[in-house]
Queue: 2 jobs
Job 1
Amino acid sequence: MDIELSPLQARVIGCLIEKEVSTPEHYPLSLNALTNACNQKSNREPVMSLGESEVQQAVDEMIKKHLVSEKSGFGSRVVKYQHRFFNSEFGGTRFNPQQMGVVCELLVRGPQTPGELRTRTARLCKFGDVSEVEQVLNELMGHEEGPFVARLPREPGRRDSRYAQLFCGEIEAAETTPAAAPTQTMTTSDRERIDQLEQTVAQLRQELDELKQQLGA
């Protein structure tokens, strides 16, 4: 992967991607709108307090890298900005809506679990369940031009691992190998537990039937 961003550049790109999808009627963004998006107190981690000059500097740097371009409407004096990150008219790597939604969310909100990503990408794309998110994360980890995301070591007290974007550089101790698909093989122990549960359910049903008879139901 040839792209490497600073944390501020990642925030700017993430906000441009987000607003393109969530509020297309206001996209591309003026410098003022982009600054407000970067400083948004919801759906951002960490919360920033940036000035327009800081955002402008980040934009200018990314224009030189061909990651952002200017676009002004006819008769408008206000310069507006659009991203050329992925899926742009300028070609390059193509992400589907789910992949783009996950990347965007990781750019603006940092490392997250698959469950958190499913909830927080709702305004950008749709996931049927957490397994679909995990599949997309695996695709981004195993992408031929990537990896674009990595799996972080599981934290104490957390059931699921968090995932982070790699556009700001590699992360120490993070894994970039896609998770193996879960095996469908049932062990003897699993079969015994299922048999026991089925017996318990059958017994409960029998007791319920007997109780109904006693009550005249």
Job 2
Amino acid sequence: MHEEDKQVLLKLARDSIESYFKRQDSDINNVLHLNKEQGVFVTLHKNGQLRGCIGFPEPVMPLYKAVIEAARNAAFNDPRFPFVTIDEMRTISIEISVLTVPKLIKIEDSEEYKNHIKIGDDGLIIRSSHGSGLLLPQVASENSFTVTQFLNCLCQKAGLSFSAWQNPENHIFKFQAEIFSEE
């Protein structure tokens, strides 16, 4: 993605949150060209700490629309946090992760995951009959996870037991992300 498109998307994410306070729509005139359907997550940080993160793992809408929805949801619908306030916006930094299409990791034995997952490159999704969860690629890097720790945390995020990734009935998908943030 071009650097100017990254900056436009970051501005769109910020504007979509700030315009929500004014009960206005986001100005989309300069982002309409970013209309390829792509998965995306918007992460909000305050003083270096997570303040909200919501997104779409699958390409279900044009990128610019997904950024608007994800940004507003990260600010106002992440159940882990209270709503972001207008005063807080001065201290919030925004990060966007544009995702590749998730691909099922096909293995014969759960130990093979160690050969198929690259820490720092791959994000993970687990899907089971009891829930699903997603961790972005940067989570493993930021926490110096091993592949096993990454898989354990993925299961925890999904509300499953740590070892649920070892159950062949649960499916693990991997994806990559282009990650960029406000300076």
